[in-house]
């Protein structure tokens, strides 16, 4: 975490921030890929405070992030994250550890993206592919977990993760429903000019188990899914995940969408 600077001061190059996007599928064969967590620990997370910004399991359009006490969990390895230009980010303030940035109801519990460290909130000094001038930025060590009752199951950790949003509104996971599973997609960074980068999770309807999903294409397994910033977004068509690829400068658009079959036993979407 970089120290808070004056809003008139640009973050030093030594505090290079990481941004998980830009054609960003990291191979599981590369050092630093995500290792799913199967460990479940008793929750040490308290309920959100009753302040006006406190979140609930079903956030409204006006809802903003809330702070709660984070759970202590075992460490996981992180995906390789490309570097973002630090000179575009100005730090403004620090939020307490436990700030919730995304949440959605899932089965008997909920999926949450929560800061496991203090969170640095800033803004973009100038417009770029990542967002417009003045839009809020967030950086922290984040955990994505499944919370049910008094149990928190850590699914993924994103250390020193930086992203930009158009507002402080708490995100929701996108849900894609299949016959045997509910699939949840979360793309924290809302634009890049090169596609959205999403993390995927599944809930097995047979046993209620929740776990991360990977994507296999051409013999390579990726931890994230990259898709177009414009609709149509990933959807279930005939029990297959249909994904439209992003179109960026200097790249040729794909004539057909990618199609994936869901393999719950292998915890994979496998491209046809």
Automatic annotation (TrEMBL):
Keywords: Signal. This is Uncharacterized protein. It comes from the Bacteria. The keyword Signal applies. Residues 1-32 form the signal peptide.
């Amino acid at each position: 975490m970089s120290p808070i600077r004056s809003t008139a001061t640009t973050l030093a190059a030594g505090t290079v921030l990481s941004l998980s996007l830009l054609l960003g599928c990291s191979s599981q064969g590369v050092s630093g890929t995500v290792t799913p967590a199967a460990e479940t620990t008793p929750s040490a997370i308290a309920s959100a405070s009753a302040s006006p910004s406190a979140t609930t399991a079903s956030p409204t359009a006006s809802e903003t992030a809330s702070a709660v006490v984070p759970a202590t969990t075992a460490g996981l390895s992180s995906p390789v994250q490309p570097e973002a230009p630090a000179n575009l980010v100005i730090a403004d303030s620090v939020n307490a550890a436990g700030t919730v940035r995304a949440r959605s109801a899932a089965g008997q519990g909920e999926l949450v993206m929560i800061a496991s460290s203090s969170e640095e909130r800033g803004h973009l000094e100038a417009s770029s592919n990542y967002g417009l001038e003045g839009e809020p930025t967030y950086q922290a060590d984040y955990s994505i977990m499944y919370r049910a009752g008094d149990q928190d199951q850590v699914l993924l950790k994103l250390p020193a993760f930086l992203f930009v949003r158009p507002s402080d509104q708490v995100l929701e996971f996108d849900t894609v429903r299949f016959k045997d599973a509910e699939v949840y997609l979360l793309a924290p960074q809302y634009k890049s000019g090169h596609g959205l980068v999403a993390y995927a999770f599944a809930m097995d309807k047979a046993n209620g188990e929740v776990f991360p999903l990977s994507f296999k294409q051409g013999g390579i397994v990726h931890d994230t899914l990259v898709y177009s910033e414009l609709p149509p977004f990933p959807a279930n068509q005939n029990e297959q995940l249909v994904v439209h690829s992003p179109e960026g400068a200097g790249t040729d658009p794909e004539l057909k969408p990618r199609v994936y079959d869901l393999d719950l036993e292998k915890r994979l979407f496998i491209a046809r």
